[in-house]
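Need residues for this backbone.
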């Protein structure tokens, strides 16, 4: 009987050691999680501040004439997509985004239906691999979120503009 009690005590001790190790690991991970959440909050606030500054800057500047638009510096590929508002020229967008808009505006002017991301990818002359289609879908969604395009319930995109709300300065969502 003593050997059974000894075995149970050994197992209990091993379980206590394991629980303590897991508690230490959980505390370490809680610290890592807290640091990651702080970094995420900083990045969200930075993006919101930048979007607000871009919207305020665009609202303060008069409408761009065609001559001024032609002399404006080319956007940097991969740059931010500002929220659309009346008077904001397409030239503020990176060439990839301008291409997506062009395909959909051409399609709309011909009176045709909205396009799915795969169709947009093909019309841009890109291979229709999953990676390319997802890249185009991501860019088209970003344009739709910021009011440059319309996202249909079917997941297709169409040309059209709608103003979007700019986050409040106090917001930290």
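Answer:
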């Amino acid at each position: 009987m003593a050997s059974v009690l000894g075995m149970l005590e050994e197992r209990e001790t091993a379980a206590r050691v394991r629980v303590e190790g897991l508690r230490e690991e959980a505390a370490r991970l809680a610290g890592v999680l807290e640091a990651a959440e702080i970094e995420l909050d900083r990045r969200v606030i930075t993006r919101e501040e930048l979007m607000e500054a871009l919207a305020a800057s665009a609202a303060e500047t008069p409408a761009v004439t065609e001559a001024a638009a032609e002399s404006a510096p080319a956007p940097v590929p991969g740059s931010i997509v500002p929220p659309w508002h009346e008077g904001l020229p397409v030239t503020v967008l990176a060439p990839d985004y301008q291409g997506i808009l062009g395909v959909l505006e051409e399609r709309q002017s011909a009176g045709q239906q909205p396009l799915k991301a795969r169709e947009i990818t093909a019309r841009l002359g890109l291979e229709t691999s999953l990676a390319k289609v997802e890249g185009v879908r991501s860019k088209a969604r970003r344009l739709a979120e910021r009011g440059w395009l319309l996202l249909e319930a079917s997941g297709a995109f169409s040309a059209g503009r709608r103003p979007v709300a700019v986050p409040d300065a106090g917001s930290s969502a």
